Amino acid sequence: MKEFQPADIRNFAIVGHASAGKTMLSEAMLACAGVINRLGSIADGSTVSDYHVSEQQRQISVSASLLHLEWLGKKFNLLDCPGYTDFISEGLGALRVGDFALIVVNASHGVGVGTDAVWKYATHCDIPKMIVVNAFDKAETDFEKVLAQVREHFGANVFPLTIPVNPGEGFNQVLDVPRNEIITYAGDKSGKFTEAPATGAWAERVTALHKELIEHVAESDDALMEKFFEQGGLSEEEWRAGIHRAIQNQVLVPLFVTSAENNIGVARLLDIIAKYGSSPVDRKKVAAHDLEGKDVQVSLTDPDPVCYIFKTMSEAQFGELSFFRVYSGQVKVGSELFNTDRRTTEKIGQIYLLNGKLRETVTSLNAGDIGAVVKLKDTHTGNTLCSAKKPVSLPKVEYPKPNIHAALKSNVKGEEDKIASGLAALHHEDPTFLHFVDGELHQTILSAQGELHLEVIADRLRRRYNVHVDLSEPRVRYRETIRAKGESKYRHKKQTGGAGQFAEVWMRIEPKPRDTGVEFTQSLVGQNVDRTFVPSVEKGVSKACEEGILAGYRVVDVKVDFYDGKMHPVDSKDIAFQIAGYFAFKESFLAARACLLEPIHAVEIRIPDDCMGKVMGDLSSRRGRIQGMDTDGSFQVIKAHAPAKELYRYSSTLRSLTGGRGVHLEEFSHYEEMPRDAEAKIVEEYQKHRAEPNHA
Ligand SMILES: Nc1nc2c(ncn2[C@@H]2O[C@H](COP(=O)(O)OP(=O)(O)OP(=O)(O)O)[C@@H](O)[C@H]2O)c(=O)[nH]1
Ligand SMILES: [Mg+2]
Questions:
Q1: Which ligand does the CA of 58 lie closest to?
Q2: 194 CB neighbour count, 10 Å cutoff
Q3: At 252, phi and psi to the nearest 5?
């Protein structure tokens, strides 16, 4: 492939709500440019972009794919991103390295929650947007309605550069506003087209739209505005020169119509991107930090190389691929770059240009370009690679916190190490999920962005690391405590065979305030018990507290006093007092109105106004207690306390209650006594489990 200078590169993220047609649009673009001979399909799992098994099985995108093509002498780097918010990290990384966002809206479904979200993220990344309304081949699509809805969400600057002439079945004609023409696309999905001047009503419409377009363009620049008023319009040359800037400062948000499935409307979209779309030159300088954390700028024209790793992915037969964008300088095969975040040096091996899983090698990449390298030693998503002479670090993408949890269980013994190293490797690829081993409950907890995300992680573990894992509801960390005083005089005596054992422990226990733990004291008087046995008793008590008594959970908030006992001159020894202490505590505990405590989480829920009733009703059925409420525009923010047990997969519930518009955060707050019936159930399950012959 030939070399491209920054002004000839078009980097963009194709984003939008789930199933808008982003992957098909990417496929159609590749077909237009001749990268592929015919369009693949989602149903057959034959698109270039969705080539992973997890994508083909589910018929959705799970991972952002890097694709590239050449159009009108420009190199396009497309990043086809998943629409499901479960895989938001992919879109965030792509928007970060894109020079603009191509937001796809499904003509039948209109603007969805995912559309609003990506608009917001693109704005946050400070990149311009273009909009594609796709699938006008579907019956009952209404262009005016979608346009009005898009404008309602994203403002009056949204302006159609193309309009469907014959939407519905057989859709193949598009009114082209910049050209004043009707474009007819070929029926063979090749993307080829013929042009004819607009006539009749279409001619009138396009003339009016054309005028409006020129006004938009004129608005983007004071000098153009002046000319516009002086001349009563702009010359072709003038408005064409101004359109790029109008898109840059978003005085014009261009909207296009397509049928990706039939490759209609795509070729002219490519034309406009090639001629007027953002290039790396539009963001010549980006903010960064030096090694001391001071603000610096990386300039496109600096000779020293600076790259940002926006994605890493492990591929069969290949090892780990690191996807990067060059922000300055040139990256060459064989060169050494410094990883500022890890403080290590990496040697650049093979550099690849990708089209999904198809790869071609190049020897270097210029500033502004996007590619991938393999087998870096210690470089992960979010790292900066640069010249060791001038180390800088580009700001990392901020990912949302995971808020759905599951326990990961292996059905085969001895796989723990493989699972742990697999999870660590997957986490480097996808920082939006977390994992940790809960030593207390002996389970591995996976926290992710949604149920689908959890499943995809488990799938990847199974496939790549050949382990047999299942997801289940995580066990909850209950606690055990008492509500009254209790006591015991426990005698431990063993005289069968060998040396005997004797110890008697007299103990009193009483409740302590919440979150104060277990306190062990002794108030022995006289010589009934040798003081050397106090630590033995304490050890026995600690063991009982750790094991739990009612249901196998740790004991908390109890004051224990060892106040008297008995011993035997020969048979009393450390182990005897440990055992006596252990059982004395258990006895007193059961005599002290023992109960379970459950963890309560503080949740913050953000939902649209119209979902209040449903969400509040659901919260109260989960034993939630409202702590406060706030308004944020058309959203309500509810703060509440709810038992952890009741919040299992709450993010999925919230999504379905709010049509995907609600989000929540949760974190541990405190422990509380739990309702008797719920407690009885847990105790019963524990007893049943203990009674099983093989229980460990
Ligand atoms: N009729 C029609 N169907 C389309 C069109 N574009 C895509 N589809 C279908 O819509 C479904 C979703 O298309 P995708 O291209 O996978 O959509 P996406 O936006 O990439 O979806 P995610 O990446 O999973 O969010 C598939 O069944 C496509 O065949 C179109 O222009 N017309
Ligand atoms: Mg897709």
A1: 1
A2: 10
A3: -130, 120
User: How many Cα atoms sit within 13 Å of 90 on the Cβ side?
Assistant: 21
What are the distances in angstroms from CA 170 to CA 9, 259, 264?
A: 34, 10, 10
Dist. CA 107 → ligand 2 center (Å): 16
Give the contacts of 486 (CB within 8 A, at least 6 positions apart).
508, 509, 510, 587, 588, 589, 590, 591, 592, 593
230: how many CB neighbours lie within 10 A of its CB? Answer: 8
Strand ordering across the sheet containing 253-257: 65-71, 74-80, 9-16, 100-106, 129-134, 253-257, 158-160
Q: How many helices (H) and strands (E) does the chain have?
A: 16, 37
Higher pLDDT, 532 or 317: 532
Q: Which atom of ligand 1 is nearest to the CA of 259?
A: 31
368: region left, alpha or beta (phi > 0 left; psi from -120 to 50 alpha): left
CA-based torsion, 56, 61, 62, 68: positive or negative = positive
Does ligand 1 lie within 6 Å of residue 24's CB atom? Answer: yes
Q: Are 384 and 304 spatial neighbours (Cβ–Cβ below 8 Å)?
A: no
Q: Give the residue, out of 30, 39, 42, 62, with the most ligand 1 atoms within 8 A of its beta carbon, to mutate for a pocket test.
A: 42
For atom 32 of ligand 1, the residue with the nearest CA is 135
Q: Could you give the 3-state DSSP secondary structure of residue 623?
A: coil
DSSP state of 6: G
Q: Which residues sit opposite 77 in a β-bridge?
A: 11, 68
Residues 6+ apart with CB under 8 A from 630: 636, 637, 639
Question: Quick one: which of 157, 177, 316, 336 has its CA closest to 257?
Answer: 177
d(CA 622, CA 615): 11
Does 58 sit in the ligand 1 pocket, CB within 6 Å? no
Is 673 in a helix, a strand, or coil?
A: strand
H-run or E-run covering 206: helix 200-219
Q: Give the per-residue pLDDT at 535.
A: 95
> Which residue's CA is minimally distant from atom 26 of ligand 1?
42
Cα separation, 696 vs 691, in Å, equals 11
20 CB near ligand 1 (under 6 Å): yes
Query: Which pLDDT belongs to residue 399?
Result: 87
Using the mean position of ligand 1's atoms as its centre, give its distance from the Cα of residue 691 in Å: 54
Residue range 387-446, pLDDT digits in tens: 999 999 999 988 888 888 999 988 888 888 889 989 998 898 888 999 999 888 888 999
| Interval between CA 16 and ligand 2 midpoint (Å) | 9
Cβ atoms of 116 and 107 closer than 8 Å: no
CA distance 633 to 656: 22
Query: Quick one: pLDDT at residue 174?
Result: 96
Q: Tell me the CB-side half-sphere exposure of residue 668, using CA atoms within 13 A.
A: 8
